[in-house]
## 1
Amino acid sequence: MEIALALLVGCFFTVSIYLLLSKYVIRILLGVAILGNAVNLLIFTAGRLTKEIPPIIPEALQVPDGIIANPLPQALILTAIVISFSFFAFLLVLGYRAFQDLNTDDTDSMRFAEPVDEPNPPLGY
Amino acid sequence: MASKGPEITDVTGILVNADLQLADFLIVAPVVIPILFSALLLMLRTRPATQGRIAIIGMALLALACFGLLQRVLDTGPVTMTMGRWVPPFGISFSVDIAGALLAFTSSVIAFVGSIYANSTASKLEMRYGFYPFFMAMMAGVSGAFLTGDLFNLYVWFEVLLISSFGMIVLGSEKNQLDGTMKYAFLNLVATTMFLMATGYTYGLTGTLNMADIWTKVNSGLLEGPVTTIAVLFFLAFAMKAAAFPMNFWLPASYHTPKFLVSAVFAGLLTKVGVYALLRVTLMLFADQRDLFAEIIAWIAALTMIAGVLGALAQNDIRRIFGYLVISGIGTMLAGLAIGSVTAITGILVYAVHSMIVMTALYLAAGVVGRMMNSNDLRQVGGIYAASPMFAAGFLILALSVSGLPPTSGFWGKFILVKATVELGAWWLTAAILISGLLTSIAIFRVWIFTFWRGGPSGTRDGAEAWKVEPLNQEYQLAAFISLGVLVLATFALGVFPEVLIGTAADGAKGLLYPTGYIESVFGGTQ
Amino acid sequence: MNTIIFRTFAPYLTALMVLFSVFILLRGHNDPGGGFIGGLLAASAFAIYGIANGVTPVRRAIYFHPISLAGFGLFIATLAGLPSILAQVPFLTGLWVYPKIGSVELALSTTLIFDIGVYFVVVGTITSIALALEERLED
């Protein structure tokens, strides 16, 4: 099971890096989203996989009864999902706004902050 | 309604049982205060008149809390508080040693000065879009990153400061701001995702996220697995956040686009958080692993210094010049990380404090220049010396400071780092630091000569008939005078009386390299 | 979506959902539920009301700006950590009191205050997003 998940994480990383290397904003955005999921899955795998036993302590006991699933990676992933979701939302709005205002989603032609035809700085006055 | 479960009989083993005094809560105050004020300002968003003043009060409280914390850490050694009373490593710990407290205090002072400057410049529209809540939340993130003792918590604070910095950098939504934000946002997000990846691997390998616990496990020698790979991943992530070569291009692409205050605070604080994380994780947690790739770090440091300063020489826009100088400064600090001796780490901490002060001051000065000349382009500025000799003199001190010349704080940081390289015998690293210092002075003095010394912008006649600059309104003048004055005085004072800073930084460096006190403060000497 | 059935029914549904969200919030300490999920429920209740009757009545009904609600939530969630100063225990420790009102024993705690804070943060942010989107649709 770990091997299958490791391969899946590898696939996710491949896809996301391929998309991140594109020059179009929307593809980079999808790449970022997949990258976030790849990392979440990675944490999940790194937290060891167990059979689906929920980490709940029975009412009569004070410690869990036998082996339970590790809840910590799931808590970490939950936090990471919420964070990456909000970032994705922000970037989506930003990308859309940039597309509207700059009239392009090609990063090669996004040269408003760093103009291409900037002359050399003055050497003397 | 929560029902009372079965009574748990013995809880003493899993809870922290020491009685805490009010002073013990200083360690969470630098996070709690900005969050409370951020929430308060969020509620008062529609009343812009009061926002600035409340923010100044909040930042002043933050600075006081950080000062108290620094005093306490200097008195009693590293301090730890574990949230929710669970024993570490199960609860999330806040652990602070001298290095963290020193940087947290410096950053809170920068934020305080920034809030004074902001009070006179923030427009009503910007406040409606939540400038002050974002500023406060960013400070919570910055302080949290300096104080936390938990790796995943560090990631969360990074994200807090990142998302609020997004909100701040995009304020105004002009074309070049959107463009700059795109590059800033994407590259920083990829960097934090890499950090999360490394955190996940660390958890898989050590089974813990508490830094003190990780340190114990990594140094026990029992760990089997690709520890060095994890250390390199951490280095990569934080170096990207700190804008080290060759991942530096997002910084000069974005830092000159937002409001002046925003770029000032960013340049002062955000990259230094990256440097701090490098120190904490790469140097303290993975010390042996760092030795294996120290030479690579040295090369990256040298290239960052030289590439940064060469970039600064090729720019017209004042803020873009400063952006490249920030990068060059990061390279100087990385050189210390590559060496890793007590002297070198002392140098990094001194240089980080200096860099926070001076880069913020330079960007604020660029803001004043922008107000006076309506431009930040070297070709379209000039003649400010005639209009305000005081401002010109202040800028001159900042220029001396950023190029590492006495009598300013920049001199001592570079001096200690150079000393560290000489001690090690890494002559080429010495040469890189000195050459970058020389080129920095050329770049910054060109700014000074063009902006202040000459009579007017290119095309006007130099000399007798001085160029008339725009008069500043009184409120802005006062705010700019106070904020710049404090920072210029700070860099000057630290240059003339550096003993306290260097002594504190040396103790901080020892604490990072031999963190037994840090570990003991977390586990209370029980492990 | 503007059928008369939906418009007549929506206020009752909204009221019921908000009530249920409070119930979910309060049972959250030992049972499934809590501030986050309760907040989501309340936010969707406001969204339903907005779809049925338009955004302006919703804004008038909740009186405060949703973002201010979120700020309030953040504020009291942070405040929930502060009673631990008085109890001399680390920040954010859950402190419980069991006052008796008549024959009923209430279990009140700082974690409940924290959860209420979370509830308001979620209600505020999600409602403000939902209302902004619905305003777009109305244009």
## 2
Amino acid sequence: MKLLPFLKDKCLLLFLQLVCMGILSLFLYLTGYGKTGISLILIFWLLILLAHFSITFIQRRRYFSEIQSLMEHLDQRYLLGELLPPSFRLEDHLYGEMIHASNKAVIERIRRLEREQKEYREYIESWIHEVKAPITGIALLAENGRKGQDSGKLRAAMGEICLENQRIENYVDMALYYARSEHVYKDFLIQETSLQEVGEEVLKKNRLLLIGNGVRAKVDCPDPVYTDRKWIVFILNQMVLNSVKYCGGQPLFSIYTQKKRDGVILVMEDNGSGIRPEELSRIFEKGFTGSNGRRQERSTGMGLYLCRRLCEKLGIGLRAESEAGKGTRMLLEFPISTYIARG
Amino acid sequence: MRDCKILIVEDEALIRRELKTLLENAMYQVEAFTHFTDLPGRIAACRPDLVLLDVNLPEGNGFDVCLKLRQQSQVPVIFLTSRTDSMDELNGMLKGGDDYITKPYQAPILLARIAAVLKRTGDFREASVYEHKGVQLDISRCCILRQGKCQELTKNEMKLLHRLFKSPGEYVSRMELIEYLWENQIFIDDNTLSVHVARIREKLRALGVEEFVETKRGIGYRI
């Protein structure tokens, strides 16, 4: 609270006092009072007025700076109404009550939204688990059909169904991980994870798509890390799918680890079309498709965004390096937790 | 080596049927339950070598079935489930499961995990020496032999020949071969396959065999 605005606020009162002083002086003068007496009275009046304003100003300033600091230290500011400092002033009291009531309405609304969101999330999760049964059914059916005795044309069609079914599976997984990324702690199982196995699993899982695109791949990940295995599988899967989308002729994928003093880096490298430097910093943004993605008209801009979110929750660093036309490197940095290292 | 009996406990009819086909094609003996009362007792009575147990069953969940089953049998159990919570995974292990596979599972991954569990728990090892037209493929020593002469193979060549030796006399398409190699951690493309086949032929020639691996254009290879 500053002095000048305070005085401006009090200008009516000040004006009233000055008018009163004038009227009193006039009255005293007309009744034959001496000039010194009048001056003395006015000086006393002014002193009292000054004292009153000073005390009020200091009190008010203390009151509001207390509220100010409360605001700064509260992480949920809508709880201010509960914590207002006591004041004997009627106005403070009335405002306090109003803020309290208004906050209460906000809190109720937030609670309701939270509940609705939770219900929706739970529904999505259970829906995803339900839809996985038919996806499994189709996958097995198509797999058996593909290996079966039917005509070549039918077998090829079954292969296509397998591929499309896998795309559905991936979209469903994306929805699941999106729904869960907010509440990771419920879904963590940190264990020693072999990145070699993870890399091989992801490549095997997508073998139809990758072979169909003529991809060669290498996996060389001798360094184990402590993390949640299925989340890493999901993240690496998004990266591999991304690389397939933008691969050129004779695609070669390498998945390898580099051991550093303070952690292990998992690298997913391709020799595809690469990312333009001006777009590199934005590829992990939600809904960003870039010039590559728009050209292919298949990108939703969700895959890498989800990767970033999950990496944040898992405490993994995520970076991309790229040279347009030469390829892209996605780097996952697993820090060595001092906690685990000591144990 | 003997035939392995796998028991499927899965309430979705389509998945049950296709799973059965898949496993039968993979040369397992398969049995499947179609109703789900008194499971622990019936599973034990069936004496399978491995149980594929769905977690969500119409009468109670698979974890409890497994826990009760453990009181009377040590048969290996692989849980199948569409739930992917970590707690579920942990539960599966605590209740005495040997492995845990989430739907939608990929056929080769499922088969590999079944084979891994069987290998760990029983005496079901695959043959380690194959023979066809006088040429022997020794898996454990990673070489081909003929009349006492031996040629060493790289891992990739060995896997490639392994696939061909598994179905002698039949054409195996290039796509099928590449897929088989991918399933076995060898991630190569079409050109590399041709290179490997050429090298294998060279090694066979060194053993004095010509035309052992036949090519049929547009179809594939056979031995």
## 3
Amino acid sequence: MIDNNQLLRFTTAGSVDDGKSTLIGRLLYDSKSIFEDQLKSIENTSQKKGFEGIDLALFTDGLRDEREQGITIDVAYRYFTTLKRKFIIADTPGHIQYTRNMVTGASTANAAIILIDARHGVIEQTKRHAFIASLLQISHVIVCINKMDLVDFSENVFNTISNQFESFCSKMLIKDVRFIPISALLGDNVVNRSENMTWYQGAPLLHTLETLHISSDINKVDARFPVQTVLRPQSETHRDYRGYAGRIASGVFRTGDEITVMPSGFLSKIKSIDTFEGALEEAFAPMSVAITLEDDIDISRGDMIVRSNNKPEASQDIEVMLCWLHNKPAKPRAKYTIKHTSNEQKAMIQEVIYKIDIHTLERKSEDDTLCMNDILKVKIRTTKPLMVDSYRDNRTTGSIILIDDATNETVAAGMIV
Amino acid sequence: MSKYYLNYLDELESEAIFVLREVWAQFENPVILFSGGKDSILVTHLAKKAFFPAKIPFALMHVDTGHNFPETIQFRDDIVKDLGLKLLVGSVQASIDNGRVAEERGKNATRNALQTTTLLDAIETHIIDCAIGGGRRDEEKARAKERFFSHRDDFGQWDPKNQRAELWNIFNGKHFQGEHFRAFPISNWTEMDVWNYINRENIAIPSLYFAHERQVVKRDGTWIPFSEFLVLEDHEEVLTKKIRFRTLGDITITGGEESEADTLEKITAEVSGMRNTERGNRSDDKRSESAMEDRKRQGYF
């Protein structure tokens, strides 16, 4: 274990045919993350199915229904570790009817792998996957052009598809795009460098994942501390202790910082930043700490501690890119519970500004229904102000969910514009 | 100039603390499901950190099958005393005695599946609205689909195809009376992460995890501990071996491996070289391809 090893979360979107499961199986297999008993069980199943050798896709087997139908329905999380990093894969289905699962998997990812079948080039689904990566502000997109073995490992095919992708995604907010020609089935450029594509000068996929610069993915400028709960031990050693427990959403806090408590607006200074191991001089996102203040002020769950010279906007009217997650469509002007960090209020969807046509990615303003998998820009009004940043600046203080009070189900997820 | 990023263990720790604090904030009466195994010990350790300097605000709940390793029970009682916590025990023996469940028969009979009824009864009796577990997504394919906050209906059942969407780190613990949640703070940890962390933090764990001499019987390729509950087959022979356990379940179903690893460093090194999954020696998971999924749907841990 190396102390500096970081955690990288990435998402893969793809359907059965473009080799997503095979790619994940290959990554796990070639990075030696598969155990022998798993391998043995896969070998048996592969034989039963009449597969020559082992079917790598079986490593991503899930629930019984998914096995029977040979599809991924829900997000599955998979793990592997190399000498350089620990990886969490959010393995999501790629088909249009599972847009909500792709959005879910993308919400925590630093990087997205988009798979393109070299024989088919950029298709509608590719654009949708790129759009979701851009919508969820995934910092790094790695386009894997797969099945290169079926196009004679042609550099020409690779360049044509890369150009196609570049030209349509130039309009999207994707900061870092890379292209890798691979064969997941044969292992070319997944973990090991391909001997069939010496024209490709870049790194194989695993090396790319191991070296992506992710330290800047979290906002380290705007100090935001949503209060989760108040710690009051009332013990002999800590009789008057009052610590505000939470996870720093973004930025850096230091002892002595002048802070403002939102929404009340009270001013104070940070007296201490406490952890089980002792007090810290400074703490940064995403650390979980307890903060004590110089002054005794009324703070509870849902409040946010911020640095006084850099505050989020307190707003009751927000514009949101909303993804509808539930099979029950929204009722016009219906009320919901809105959750934003540790804060909770009532909210109403006031207006649909436009809906994204998920096929063409064009904006449609005449359709204002909210059905499952729809992505729309809406105006939301809340009963009390939320302390918001734009999602582009801050994934934590820029995101919300909506809950239907009649069923308690999470019905929508939104990114504040 | 300090670095402004966390290493992966610190990030996992911070995430787990966040989840534990969310549970405390969102539920009325949460408990930690405590089996005495390393994962529930880890969750308890993380809870200590999450609420410091206050003490852990959760009771520990143990589902006691009656087929325990004596070492596990001793360990449980020590940790409860040490941390000043309340212990709730759901007894499988009591469930059998009052006819809620019937004992399995046959050579490989276990009380593993019976635990579900006892667990759900205990959750109902003590009006628990959230049971915090040490389940990890890397353990098993059904567990790979678990949420951090996982809803259970008023029969205690899990519906994997109708789970609530869980995005970013916004958790929805809203529920109706009679329903409850399971929360999994260490969802994103792997077995190796757990051992690296236990090693780093020097967390006390039961002696069973360290190599020790024990009377055992070879069964299905693994060393099953000899105990009063084990029905021997004619050809089976009780031997003394130096073994350790990689996971702890019931004494009747937990297989040990021959090992010389008697310190945390040696265990961590041994686990990192292992070529089989940790549940490979658990006969409860070997029953069918969807054994875990089926049990989880019923309300198992």
## 4
Amino acid sequence: MSTSTADASSTDATSTDVPASAPPGRGRILVAVTASVALLLAAGAYTVLAGRRGEPAPVATVPVTLDPGPRLLFVSDRHLAVSARTDPDGSRSLAALECVRTYAAAGTGVCIHPVNAWTYQLMVLDAKLGTTKEFTVPGLPNRARVSASGRMVAWTTFVGGDSYNSGGFSTRTGIYDTRGGALVNSLEEFAVTVEGARHTAADVNFWGVTFTADDNRFYATMATGGKRYLVEGDFAARTVRTLASNVECPSLSPDGRRIAFKQAIDDQPTNGWRLSRLDLDTMRVTNLAETRSVDDQAAWLDDATVAYTLRAADGTPSIWTVPADGSGEPSLLVSNAESPAGL
Amino acid sequence: MYLSTVKSGTPTGAPPTGERTGRRGRFGAVSANVFALGAVSLVTDVSSEMVTAVLPLYLVLGLQLSPLAYGAIDGVYTGATALLRLAGGYLADRTHRRKLVAGIGYGLSAVAKLGLLAAGRSTGAIGLVIAADRAGKGLRTAPRDALITLSTPPHALGRAFGVHRTMDSIGAFLGPLVALGVLAAAAQSYDAVFVTSFCVAAVGVLLLALFVRDHRGALPAKPDAAPVRLRDAATLLAEAPVRRLVLAACLLGLATIGDGFLYLMLQRREEVSLVWFPLLAAGTSLGYLLVATPIGILADKVGRLPVLLGGYAALAVTYLLVFGPVGGWPLLVLTLGLYGVFYAATDGVLMALAGPVLPERLRTTGIALIQTGQALSYLVSSVLFGLAWTLWGPQAASRVAAAAVLVAIAATVALLRTRATARPAVPTQPVEPTR
């Protein structure tokens, strides 16, 4: 890498190569190799230390089941966990099964299981946590839901990573019928009606499905053209139609008449979300007492209470509840836990 | 075309032959400086693609930001980056310190990796850090490409850019794999990925500092050789060849619909490939790195304009194939392969085409101008294509896009035809036989 000759020969040229300012020749290579090795060793050491920090997988003290009962299902330290409704923060038992999102109803569970950081498996579970169906889902898990009867399963993943200039994001929402075996990989296959007109835009994204009692109709969020809609879907007919706007992550109450959802403040998701309730008979919206921004699909623990995940500044999640009628105030249900569902 | 540049009295920036030419021969007529810049790009791309690969995971799973918040972070900063790219190009020309400006860009992106650790969960801070990272990328691209043109004789520019882009895309291909390895070794700890990415980026800055030679213009000896002024930068567009080239680059950019849309159409057509969606970009990178150098050499032999237009023809065929007769895996291999060919035949080749047309003292500014024009055209074309999709559906929209590419090719031929005949034929200076 000696440059002296070349530089001397170019002194009379109109332009000049300026050599890198550093010790010449072998010295420069030595500096490069030494510094590179030092930097890479530092990275390696940090990585190994970070690996040691990871805590060992917890083991259940009591067998975890999804049998219906006065218990709460959630995810704690990335593992499936169950506790009693009467003492939810004290008596949790953690299963060995790793999940980042879960839900269960009537003895059917869904677990989004990480295979590695890039690959997630959707597992449909029976009450004993046995796997009845599993398949790989694309992207990063975001939402999961089971219909009240335990028959229908839905999930949302976030497929990002379109680097160059497309910006934005893309979601995939799928539905699986555990009885009929029908599997829809993406609701984007469904015929879409927006405010009464057929809609074929490229930018349609769905997330956050909640099922009605007939195990065919469902509600979900659909985004297109920068607006987010509440849609009502028909699984058998493969159609969805919009009902209202600025309604995200709907969650249908056990009586089927109200929807808990997150409402973007001033219709701007960057402002955060207000946990709210929509009455389907009147289409009236009521804000719930939680004033912190809730970015979750809430779960109804009974006809009067919704549960949801909040995160502390350091990312630690906790599960909170708030009365569904807009009164009262939020209260902490389980600390260091997320993705709640009443069993 | 470089013949006309020589005639107009603009220095071509070809380094003197002699001892260094002999050394260059071992690498097939590509200068050590281009290899040094290629190594810097390779290492830097490993670093930046590591983060690109895990950033959605980190934001959505690690920090539990909603997809929409992520989208807002991702999409906001294009305009600012474009302006900064122009400013950086102008500054590099004015101060004659292309290496320094590029170095600031590389350094800024390196520091941004640590910024991700410091930003925590604050969406605003993360947005700022990502903006800093992009600003670094915007700053460094034009000075780097200018240094490549200034370190290479005009007749070998295609090859030089081919080699550089090959090394660049090897880095882009390796980045996600390194990130995967780090995540596995560090028990899914994202901060280990960021720290590693920073260390790798620091190695890149070090390589730049130690092995890349700056290429400064002659120091002003006479008053008429005064430093570059803002007015000079403005006159760049007054020169017809430069204006035509920028116009052609923008037109071609307008006919390019963006990776996201192409991958989306492929994914819609091939339902089974849903799981492989993130791998579509990797497939394109692979095609790109395999053919970038051979296509660069071809561009030097048969002329850069034909190769550039051939690349856009490959793009038109890609758009037609998406809803064409072939399906399944052959469709994916064929479209992603052709798409890689498109990148290989256009990205570096356009710079090789532009280099000799731009006066040396304003070369970085000129390159920044072309790259910014194209980046803004991509934005417009994405919006237009989204609109076409809404109005006519994806199949018709993709055919309209293919037709638009053909129109852009015809317009480019009309704009640049005069210079197409002046393709680099016989080099004026003696070079050793290539092998």
